């Protein structure tokens, strides 16, 4: 679920950091810029893996800082489609089951991708798998905090970069609803044998 | 059982899903490459330089298309990494930062601290934290005989499956590609080479406890 992504960036090092090793300052600057951020169509950046190439550094007129073009590799969270992941249930809602990996929260398993037949318990706000056996149906609850194994079936990136005010109308509507959209969401599925809460499939 | 002909694996990620995507020529693993399928006419025009593809072209439209789609695949920009190596990297980073202490330069690194802490916490719970490069090498050598794709081997490493149903999840079309004996052999290799995770150790302890409790009864 982690990938190494090769990137190139120009890093600005302010003069008061010249006493340090260039590689250390660059690593720090890159981590400051990228760590814990979602890059559009790339994934959630975790930390710097290594620096593969440093080009010549330049000092521009009017600015004492050095500018260095850096080729580096970054560890990025970006599971491939159909990958199996294990997470914890963060909560249930009529939209489906929300799953968290700890460092990444925007995972949704929609109702149609749950083990069927499934129903939403309004009173307890929890999804239930009505598992049928010869002795009758068992209700398997998907409680918050349980570990769950799921398959990644879809991903979507939303460009959340700020945009200028397009019109007065749009302004007023956005003021009413300051909806915060997740920049990167995964859609999961557990509609296969072996998927779902880990406790469902252990032999004991 | 019906015979199933496996098509060529995707050049980029070695996945077999490629074969299934009949209409789009997009490998499901390495991501959608719509430009690729759209560019096929241009591709086949360029094909004659390659003798192998020329043969494929005469063999039928489908074959030509398959090879063409592979030829215009973009160069690799991403590499998948194991949980184990990420874990190693993050622990090293943590140590390094601890050594350098709270110097004046480490301000503005809250983002890095948050993400490395959470990621480490996540990976510590998986069986990958004890995987050394030697173990991984041994595992991959043992896996050669099983004819699995890279993505499948990576998932086996990351999850260390202990039941047949988990193998069926991680290996594509496992019913057609693997017999029951082969799955058993695979499970044996996985559990014998890869060290158990923290959950298993805990489970063992709780099992002991429950057994102790049951004994007097």
From TrEMBL, chain A:
Example of a GO MF term: DNA-directed RNA polymerase activity
UniProt keywords, alphabetically: Antiviral defense, DNA-directed RNA polymerase, Immunity, Innate immunity, Nucleus, Transcription
Species annotation: Ailuropoda melanoleuca
CDD domains given in the database record: RNAP_III_Rpc25_N (cd04330)
Pfam families: RNA_pol_Rbc25, SHS2_Rpb7-N
Primary location: nucleus
The name this protein goes by in its record: DNA-directed RNA polymerase subunit
Domain annotation RNA polymerase III subunit Rpc25: ranges: 83-201
Classification via InterPro entries: NA-bd_OB-fold (IPR012340), RNA_pol_III_Rbc25 (IPR013238), RNA_pol_Rpb7-like_N_sf (IPR036898), RNAP_E/RPC8 (IPR004519), Rpb7-like (IPR045113), Rpb7-like_N (IPR005576)
Cellular compartments annotated: Nucleus
Automatic annotation (TrEMBL), chain B:
Domain of life: Eukaryota
One Pfam family here: RNA_pol_Rpb4
Membrane topology: Peripheral membrane protein
Recorded GO CC terms: plasma membrane; RNA polymerase III complex
Subcellular location: Cell membrane; Nucleus
GO BP terms, alphabetized: transcription initiation at RNA polymerase III promoter
GO function terms (MF aspect): nucleotide binding
Ranges where the record places region Disordered: 194-217
Domain RNA polymerase Rpb4/RPC9 core: 75-197
InterPro entries on file: HRDC-like_sf, RNA_pol_Rpb4/RPC9_core, Rpb4/RPC9, Rpb4/RPC9_sf, RPC9
Keywords: Cell membrane, DNA-directed RNA polymerase, Membrane, Nucleus, Transcription
Quaternary structure (record): Component of the RNA polymerase III complex consisting of 17 subunits: a ten-subunit horseshoe-shaped catalytic core composed of POLR3A/RPC1, POLR3B/RPC2, POLR1C/RPAC1, POLR1D/RPAC2, POLR3K/RPC10, POLR2E/RPABC1, POLR2F/RPABC2, POLR2H/RPABC3, POLR2K/RPABC4 and POLR2L/RPABC5; a mobile stalk composed of two subunits POLR3H/RPC8 and CRCP/RPC9, protruding from the core and functioning primarily in transcription initiation; and additional subunits homologous to general transcription factors of the RNA polymerase II machinery, POLR3C/RPC3-POLR3F/RPC6-POLR3G/RPC7 heterotrimer required for transcription initiation and POLR3D/RPC4-POLR3E/RPC5 heterodimer involved in both transcription initiation and termination.
Protein function: DNA-dependent RNA polymerase catalyzes the transcription of DNA into RNA using the four ribonucleoside triphosphates as substrates. Specific peripheric component of RNA polymerase III (Pol III) which synthesizes small non-coding RNAs including 5S rRNA, snRNAs, tRNAs and miRNAs from at least 500 distinct genomic loci. With POLR3H/RPC8 forms a mobile stalk that protrudes from Pol III core and functions primarily in transcription initiation. Pol III plays a key role in sensing and limiting infection by intracellular bacteria and DNA viruses.
Family, similarity comment: Belongs to the eukaryotic RPC9 RNA polymerase subunit family.
Protein name (database record): DNA-directed RNA polymerase III subunit RPC9
Source organism: Ailuropoda melanoleuca
Gene: CRCP
